[in-house]
Amino acid sequence: MAKFAANLSMLFTEVDFLDRFQAAAAAGFKGVEYLFPYDFEAAEIKRRLDDNGLTQVLFNLPAGDWGGGERGIACHPDRVEEFREGVERAIEYARVLGNTQVNCLAGIQPEGVSDHQARQTLVDNLRFAADKLEAAGILLIAEPINTRDIPGFFLNRTTQALALFDEVGSRNLKLQYDIYHMQIMEGDLAPTIEKHLDRIAHVQLADNPGRHEPGTGEINYPFLFAHLDRLGYAGWIGCEYKPQAGTREGLGWLDAVR
Predict the structure, then answer these.
(1) d(Cα 70, Cα 49) in Å, to the nearest integer?
(2) Which residues pair with 200 in a beta bridge?
């Protein structure tokens, strides 16, 4: 049966970040994920994890100036050295936190950069990161993201991502399948998950429209959860949604499936 991880970048935001670990544990979550750990000391995050009996499931490689609107730099030809330094930084944090997988955000294709340049840069960067992370015992994952929420994001469909992974040619690179993003971009969720299950290492969820909790939109989450169980998916499902009326008030969907 799949396990659910609270995304602390979107849930429990009424309290300071470091206090969200306790809030997640109190709500019954066994794992946590979030965008980035780098504004905090790794040892302090580790203490919060241990104090609350939580597994650190996932965070992203450094992704440029997030506050300034950047959403990853892996497809930016002029940022390769910065990307490589970010891989080393992520490894340092992952080793302390016990994190066994890290996500790479491809980024928004820069103006003046051709599709070929962006793709080749992304392939080269993923190959570098996959090798470095494998040596450290950490899995690299990458996710397609919808171009409505992030216009111009370079990686936006399942088959596109997997073809690019084939070009990278690393056994240490898998897919992060975000149900919300893929419902917007391509639909056909259940057959796609089934077809590519062996290449999916992590799943994330939110309903559509609105990116709120399951049960607020069009996606049949009871069916998808049962489908994942039938397929034998035993990984984590990250709860990366915007609570419609508060995190705790919106957790009825989770109580119904665990």
Answers:
(1) 28
(2) 175
**137 Rama sector, left if φ>0, alpha if ψ -120 to 50, beta otherwise:** left
Active site residues per annotation: 143, 240
Instruction: Give the tokens for residue 139.
Output: 């899995």
- Strand pairing partners for 142? 104, 175
How many domains does the chain divide into? 1
β-bridge pairing 200-205 and 101-104: unpaired
Q: Which two tokens stand for residue 161?
A: 């991502």
Domain carrying residue 230: 3-257
Residue 232 to residue 254: CA distance in whole angstroms = 19
Instruction: Please write the tens of the pLDDT for every residue from 20-78.
Output: 999 999 999 999 999 999 999 999 999 999 999 999 999 999 999 999 999 999 999 99
pLDDT digits (tens, 9 = 90+) for 85-128: 999 999 999 999 999 999 999 999 999 999 999 999 999 999 99
Where residue 115 sits, what CATH number does that domain have? 3.20.20.150
By the 10 Å C-beta count (0-12 exposed, 13-18 middle, 19+ buried), 88 is classed as: exposed
